[in-house]
Write a structure and sequence with these properties.
Elements: H1 12-41, H2 45-72, H3 78-84, H4 92-120, H5 142-173, H6 177-188, H7 194-214, H8 217-236
């Protein structure tokens, strides 16, 4: 099958029929299940964020993506991976777009955080279910739980949002796709709370724009993972 032979437009109704349930799942699990597990076991909340999010949120995103591909008539193959999902060889141009986009998103997010602090004072940017103290002796094992979660987080979102949905949204929204796509991706993060969500706006829309421009889903992995991973490790070791 040719890579785009069966592609259909994914308009507003189809897009938000995916975004809204995903956002609802994120909200329910973080609002109710994670606090419950923390209270019952006494373990750190961040541990259950890794476990619940990895298995209950991001793994299902991968499953949904695979189901959509199957419905479209695609088999899991190298051709599907590179042509339909657009996980193509990363070029020098892709790397430049990725780095410039990541730097711009980082600077703008930093400015937004400082601006919020001027208006509302110092605050915890992380939602309650993600808050944790820097790692200390006897807690480094959390990194072993974080690593598979991080992989599922990045791949789960990039496969479904950028690989499966974005190419079809481009057929419906054209050059404005990144705006609709970014809005839907932001909706998925509504459980994070308004403070963190506002600071994520630059990444959400800039990454959506850059991936649309490069048409390479690895760019999304580089930008998403390039911010998510290092920031977490910096917090772990008390660097920020």
């Amino acid at each position: 099958m040719e890579a785009k032979a069966s592609l259909r437009k994914l308009g507003p109704l189809g897009s938000f029929a995916i975004y809204i349930p995903a956002a609802g799942l994120m909200y329910v699990l973080t609002k109710f299940l994670i606090p419950y597990l923390t209270e019952v076991t006494g373990y750190e909340t961040i541990l259950f964020w890794f476990v619940v999010a990895g298995l209950g949120i991001f793994s299902p995103l991968i499953i949904v993506g695979l189901m959509i591909l199957k419905f479209e008539g695609y088999k899991i193959s190298k051709k599907t991976w590179t042509e339909r999902l657009r996980f193509r060889k990363v070029t020098k141009r892709d790397l430049i777009w990725s780095i410039m986009g990541l730097l711009l998103a980082g600077v703008l997010s930093g400015l937004i955080m400082k601006g919020l602090e001027l208006f509302i004072g110092k605050f915890d940017h992380s939602p309650a279910f993600m808050s944790f103290e820097p790692l200390t002796s006897g807690r480094y094992w959390l990194l072993l739980v974080w690593a598979p979660y991080w992989i599922l987080n990045i791949l789960g979102e990039e496969i479904l949002w950028r690989g499966v949905m974005l190419p079809r949204q481009e057929l419906a929204f054209g050059k404005f796709t990144w705006i609709i796509h970014g809005f839907g991706w932001g909706l998925f993060h509504v459980a994070f709370g308004w403070q963190l969500l506002i600071t994520l706006i630059p990444l959400i829309f800039i990454q959506s724009f850059v991936v649309q421009q490069t048409k390479n889903s690895w760019v999304g992995v580089i930008m998403h993972g390039g911010l998510n991973g290092p920031v977490f490790l910096a917090i772990c070791f008390g660097l920020v």
